[in-house]
Design brief:
This protein has 147 residues and is of the alpha+beta class. The chain contains six helices and five strands; from the N terminus they run H-H-H-H-E-E-E-E-H-E-H. The strands form two sheets. It has a three-stranded mixed sheet, with no helix packed on it. Strands 1-2 form a two-stranded antiparallel ribbon. It comes from Desulforamulus aeronauticus DSM 10349. Belongs to the Fur family. Keywords: DNA-binding, Iron, Metal-binding, Repressor, Transcription, Transcription regulation, Zinc.
Length: 147
């Protein structure tokens, strides 16, 4: 984790920002929760356990700064709340999400099956694809059994 924190500190420094203690605490929460999709309020709640002096406004500002510098990315699962996760997609790989309409469980889908479609869109429509996002809605195994 220390290596990632140092890399991000350098990335921010190159853009004339500092990785302050509060920003680092927020970053560490995101790194520790890598496989989760945290709302700003979730991040705030986890940071407060480590650093009671961090305010909600600081969390929001820091998340926006991290988004702006592609340290994290956000996803809206249709419930009106942004969720944040660490990752910059530096390798060009995107993961997608299957969202249960009953219990809200979010499952990451790591296969990126849209590469061919992106290439075809580029050819057919003379379009440069820079990003994509796929959300699949349905029912998880547990909820499917209850239906």
């Amino acid at each position: 984790m220390k290596k990632i924190v140092n890399e991000i500190a350098d990335k921010l420094k190159a853009k004339d920002y500092k990785l302050t203690t509060q920003r680092q605490q927020i970053l560490e929460v995101l790194l520790e929760s890598k496989d989760q999709h945290l709302s700003a309020e979730d991040v705030y709640s986890l940071v407060k356990k480590k650093a009671p002096d961090v305010g909600l406004a600081t969390v929001y500002r820091t998340l926006e700064l991290f988004l702006e510098h592609e340290i994290i990315h956000s996803v809206d699962f249709g419930d009106g709340r942004k969720r944040y996760e660490y990752g910059d997609n530096a390798d060009g790989h995107h993961h997608h999400h299957a969202i249960c309409l009953s219990c809200g469980k979010i499952t990451e889908i790591n296969e990126d099956l849209l590469e061919d479609l992106e290439k075809q869109v580029g050819i057919d429509y003379n379009f440069i694809v820079t990003d994509h996002e796929l959300k699949i809605y349905g029912y998880c195994g547990e909820c499917k059994e209850k239906r």
